[in-house]
Amino acid sequence: MAAEALDSCYTNTERKNIEELQNHILAFTKSVDTLKTDLKGKYTVLNGGCHKDWKPFRDHCYYLVKEKKTWFEGERFCKKEGSSLVNVKDKDENKWLQSQFKDVKKFWLGITDGDLKHWINTVDYAPTTYFNWSSGEPGNGAENCGVFYQGNGKWHDYPCSYLHPFVCKKDVR
């Protein structure tokens, strides 16, 4: 009875327009469902928004390059990928890195003292604020680039000309 009363409020033209609109909405919904099915597995924003082979953590993506390169070559490679060598911000990130990338024993970090005796990161060249140096590190001399030891998560400094794997890091956005 209420439906009949409501129905009588509309003219035939209005009823026809409402029915047509409902049919368009139904067709649109079916089209969206079909697109979702068609695109599934083709274009995904899974993996935390990171590209294939990159690992997500917080708002960043990380990529291990097993090919050994100098620190400078590693940084150049990362820059081409829109990233930079990994700079560790805190203890949690350090632990996460240690739990990942177990295929290598050590890798370059995105920190250098560049003969200045204070360590900076390669993202914005600001002073590094978190460190996890191994006992006796950093050493003196011509060891100006940071290396992450996978086994214990500790850091060492090495000559930048040595060859090591490296990890690139970039923002998800």
Automatic annotation (TrEMBL):
Record InterPro entries: C-type_lectin-like, C-type_lectin-like/link_sf, C-type_lectin/snaclec_domain, C-type_lectin_CS, CTDL_fold
A Pfam family of this chain: Lectin_C
UniProt superkingdom: Eukaryota
Domain C-type lectin per the UniProt entry, residue ranges: 57-169
Annotated keywords: Disulfide bond
PANTHER family membership: MANNOSE, PHOSPHOLIPASE, LECTIN RECEPTOR RELATED (PTHR22803)
Protein name: C-type lectin domain-containing protein
Organism: Mytilus galloprovincialis (Mediterranean mussel)
Lineage of source species: Eukaryota, Metazoa, Spiralia, Lophotrochozoa, Mollusca
